[in-house]
Specification:
By secondary structure, this protein is an alpha+beta fold. It is built from 21 helices and 13 strands. Among the domains are: 96 residues, no CATH class; 75 residues, no CATH class; 80 residues, no CATH class. It is elongated and about 190 Å long.
């Protein structure tokens, strides 16, 4: 069990590792990755008892945390008369305790002689000699450098191997010669029965191979492919595990070929994935539209009109903005229908717009003239009445009616005497308000 170090293996993503041993200061920590010392506050930081790397160690990297206690001088130095405190004693004890743990971990990783050996051997490593290897010298009971350099040993070994190969080839030739003799002996009369027994035992297999000799030859011709399949046997086993699915696909090979032939469209669909997802997310509205095909077909049947309306969208917007006036026209439908019924008169009026404009411009004069005419007519009637009065002619009922008829012949209206002898008048002229016989028997017309 290690007391002062812990090793981890990097995985390329983990950047935080726990420190499992105690330490007094961050400066006591030695952090290496694949034997490369890391710099604190540059390559890593220490946070809450863990080492946090700036970059996660790569896959398979050896990550080592080790404590190295400073033992160059005591952590606490007392002078004569100093006061011992628990904190100082604990600090000194911790320095000694940690140092002993580190020494124990170091001793535990050096070569040692087994305690079961009855003799003590010197396992001190001799002075290194370039190119040589260490070996155990049983006579001296110590580690010594080898008699030959490693390169020399490699050369000698290669020579021994070549000699061994030559000897093996010679032995193989000898064995072949012996085999030939043995084969001849096997075919001798004494061994024929044994050979027959062997052939009989494998008769079924021999017949099978014979019946399928063409396949055997085909396999032999394609032995490289067989080797390739053998090297990919894991994939072959995977396919074998989904043989039902493979059979299903084989049964729809025409569809698979069709799909393969439509790869361009399939790739286009894949590239349009965002829009397809949007359509899927709008499924409710799409289903609503699908359920209203009659209206959609109707709209499709008037696509030309829709196109026309789309071409006058500015006018449509203007009409929509004048909805108040349009609604007022709709509410006045009866009058519009009446006007439509006298369209000829409207057309006539439209043809004399200049005259109408002139009349409107002279309307004050026309009104004044109308007033003058009424005054003239009243004066005329007054003069007639005065003349009748001057003549001192009394008009009885019959005479009054006759005179009224004569006057009303001007277009004012008509008059008649009822059963009571009263004069009754009807008027065509709206300016006439009444026509009466006064107490003197004269006709009076009021406008």
């Amino acid at each position: 069990m290690a007391f002062s170090f812990i090793a981890y293996e990097g995985n390329g993503s983990t950047d935080t590792f726990a420190i499992t041993f105690t330490y007094q200061t961050d400066s006591e920590l030695v952090v290496t990755v694949d034997n490369v010392v890391q710099v604190i506050d540059t390559d890593f930081t220490v946070e809450d008892g863990s080492v946090v790397f700036t970059t996660a160690p790569e896959m398979g990297a050896v990550v080592l945390f080790e404590r190295l206690t400073d033992i160059e001088e005591p952590s606490v130095v007392w002078s004569s008369g100093s006061i011992f405190t628990a904190a100082n004693l604990n600090e000194v004890t911790t320095q000694l305790f940690n140092s002993i743990q580190e020494l124990s971990d170091g001793v535990g990783r050096v070569p040692k002689q087994s305690k079961s050996d009855s003799l003590l051997y010197d396992i001190t490593i001799p002075e290194p000699q370039d190119g040589y290897i260490l070996k155990w010298d049983g006579d001296s009971g110590a580690l010594v450098n080898s008699d030959y350099a490693l390169d020399d040993i490699t050369t000698l070994t290669q020579g021994y191997m070549e000699d061994a190969e030559d000897s093996a080839n010679a032995a193989a030739l000898s064995a072949a010669s012996s085999l030939s003799s043995a084969s001849a002996a096997a075919l001798s009369e004494d061994n024929v029965s044994d050979l027959v027994d062997v052939v009989t035992a494998f008769e079924t297999e021999i017949v099978t191979v014979s019946d399928n000799i063409d396949d055997v030859i085909t396999v032999a011709d394609d032995i490289d492919d067989v080797v390739t399949v053998s090297e990919s046997i894991v994939d072959v086993n995977t396919v074998a595990g989904i043989s039902d699915n493979v059979t299903t696909v084989a049964g729809i090979d025409s569809e698979v070929i069709a799909v393969a032939g439509n790869a361009t469209n399939i790739n286009a669909v894949e590239a349009n994935e965002a829009n397809i997802d949007a359509v899927v997310g709008n499924e409710t509205n799409i289903n609503t539209v699908a359920g209203d095909t009659i209206v959609i077909n109707t709209v499709a049947g008037i696509s030309t009109n829709i196109t026309t309306v789309a071409g006058i969208d500015s006018e449509v917007i203007a009409v929509a903005g004048n909805a108040t006036n349009i609604n007022a026209v709709e509410a006045n439908e009866a009058n519009i229908t009446t006007v439509a019924g006298i369209s000829a008169d409207v057309t006539t009026v439209a043809g004399i717009t200049d005259d109408i404009a002139t009349t409107v411009a002279n309307l004050p004069s026309i009104v004044s003239a109308s007033g003058y005419a009424a005054d003239a007519e009243t004066a005329s009637l007054a003069a007639a009445n005065s003349a009748a009065a001057a003549d001192a002619i009394y008009l009885d009922t019959a005479e009054a009616q006759a005179q009224a008829n004569a006057l009303l012949g001007l277009g004012i209206g008509s008059a008649y005497t009822d059963s009571n002898g009263d004069l009754i008048m009807t008027y065509n002229d709206a300016t006439v308000t009444s026509v009466n016989i006064n107490s003197s028997g004269y006709l009076t017309i009021t406008y």
